[in-house]
User: Fold these one by one.
Assistant:
Number 1:
Amino acid sequence: MRKTIELDLYYEMLYLRMVEDFISENYVQENGNQEMRCPVHLSTGQEAVSVGFMSNLQNLDKIFLTHRCHGQYLAKKGSLNAMFAEIYGKEDGCIGGRGGSMHLQDIGKGIFISIPIVGSVIPLSVGSALSSKLQKRKINNVVFFGDGALEEGVWHESAEFAKLYNLNIIFVCENNLYSVYTPLKQRQIRNQLSRFADTHSIKVFECDGNNIEDVVSTSKQAINYSNQKMQPSFFLAHTYRHREHCGPNFDDNLNYRPKNEIKRWFDRDPIKLWESKLIDRKILNEETKKEYKTKIQKKILSSHRFALRSKLPNQKEAPKYVYSK
């Protein structure tokens, strides 16, 4: 991996982290005024999966997302201006302020849709992959979801269909070990999530989701496999969210996650791990770190100002987006 690429991966992960830290801080401060008009599901701690995977995708490749979508949206070069405006419910938001944090979209960047209903985006991505095949379009269709989505019946229907019709689709499962407050071991007899793909004869690519190098390498293998074989693949990344399931805070006081588990995973923070490696390789230094943080902070503040200046949607336009016979 070239030095510039290694630094780019660090910058992108830091960018995601700083954006979500900013959202968290301002969400708490503005809560009384309800400035941010939607719930937020933050992907703090899971940045390596988004950044590593997107490094192997092209602009026109389509991604389909779930409720925890900030990381993938930003890593696929979605507009921060539009994202902030959407979270604030403004007309300059990526879908006009009508959806909020869980409904991010940027068609020009291949960010097709994000839907909060668990598992619901999976069949839509399979439909897109079928469309690509019928139109003979050489693009990747990638769907991101959490471990909890595998427990939905629609997963099995979609996976079987994708395998049966030889579709180029990559199913990306971010296993952060919890479905809201319920750990994997209380939901499933066996913790080996790869069996959900094995059942449908779908090839599995598994990696350490907090190791950016492993994510980049393994996701490239999964993408190449689906491209060359015209077959679905299952990319399984093991990672860990730092903040509460929904909201801006840390919820370690609830004690649903063992303290030793939290410490073990926080010690394996993907940004800290990569930063340490780059410093050891003499690729990253304090000056560059400061430069990156200053650059990102300026971008964040600029986008925040953009969102605050943006107008609220015209209420007379609301019926335009509601289907009626």
Number 2:
Amino acid sequence: RLVQEVLKDGMDAPTRRVWAERVVQVLNAVFPSPEFQNWPQCERLIPHATAAGRLVEDFGLDSVAAARLLDQSGGYLNDRARYAEAEPLFQRALVIYEKGQGPDRPYTASSLNNLALLYYHQGRFGEAEPLYRRALAIYEKAQGPDHPNTATSLNNLAVLYDSQGRYGEAEPLYQRALAIREKALGPDHPSTVRSVRNCAVFLRKRGRAAEAEKLEARFKIPPQ
């Protein structure tokens, strides 16, 4: 670290920015998606990604690589319930996507979903809802009402409403998400199966076990 500080002291501002951009590009290339199986690699890289996040802020970096690194590292921290660390990364990524990709593009919608999920995990439902609704509107316009990403947004919003006891609003969203996934991805796709399970759990909570069993039988899914 001492050598780093000596080298940085000898750089002018433009050179420091170039090196900051290179650090971000390299980390973006190696930081994996934050699925559970990738957690060990994420944990090894997260100190570096967090430091790179400070470089993004300090130098005003606004590349897609910078936004993706912030989103991926934020996703890992969110999954590990490290919400205070994840939130500024998601917020900065959203600003970059809105500026560079546009406010109505799928990258922006994905970033909105990430930030909304963070708020959902913390019980900040009032902050999550407008982000989920905006993401849904972007996907419907940019990719169409029958796209799998639209189904994901519908499902996210349904889960939010379900958690708030807004069952009348949640049910048609669960149903529409399932219909989209079944048509676009097929009845055996993992996303379709998750939608079936979400619908079945919802129905059982509402005292409609017979409907849940009928739905699971149609998709040949064992009851949970």
Number 3:
Amino acid sequence: MNTAFSCDRCVLRCTGSPIGITGRCGVVEVYSDRTKDKYPWMIADVSVSVIEKIPLYHYKPGSWVINLWVPGCPYNCRQCPWNASTMGEDVGKLYELSKITLSDLMDYMESAKVDLINITGGEPLILNWIYELIKQLHKNNIDVTLKSTLTVPESSLKRLHNIGAILVDIPLLSGFTPNIKYIVRRTRYLQKRSIHVEVQLSIGTNVAYILKSIDEYLQELDRETPIHIAFTEPLPEKTMMKIIEYVHMDGFVYVYVKDDPSGEYSTTYCPSCGKPVVLRDIYGVRKIILKNNKCPSCGIPIKIIGAEHYRKQREISRLFATGDRIWKIR
């Protein structure tokens, strides 16, 4: 008996047809014997920000990045701008996609005076052309970071070479039911390959589900993995503090709150003596106190890649670090 061909780019495994169907991600065409990018080398938008806005706190702090926003995602998280495809919308019409070339990116990097390129959006790793883009950028000595839900097979991650850092985004939201163990295995696989990994927990209002998921997801990770908590929906301050402390109690030494206006939960503290070693606010890095990547007070190593290359920002330049869109590619 013939078995229908299924797309293997993500966990949804959409079934193909002879004339091709658009997968639920909205960006992959699935035929009876193959898959194909529906919008190759096309992006939805581009912005410039500091790397802390991704957020990546332990990789080349203070760096300026170009964020390439690519469409397509397997999930339909509430309030997410990338869920339109799973809701039946036409991605090409909704996002006004624009073609991008390597030459364009080189020109943008030069004009914007940025340090690296970050690929973000829904789930970039379901797109074949993204792997080719990363390869070409590496040939031109351009550093690349990536944001991903890791809802892709391990075979896709094996194709991922020459990547500087990955932010693993885990939406702990109502209606989002990822296989936590599936994502853990892929996160650990990346860490074993010595790829720098940080984790973002996008927090909703179902606190019992959140705490249970944190237990399932975090227990197998390296305790020096930076954890970013992103509160996407309003919660009482007492509840937010409970979630933050819950992550700390699991033994993680670097726990942050995304876009914390106070700076208290965006600052890196020495896990040994508790002194601040990297001061941040909502705009990015304010001051790096490290000496040779060690705490100046007690001397223990602090795992931050590229801290010595930090570029001190003037006050006027920090005003542009909010991550807002600055241009639209035509």
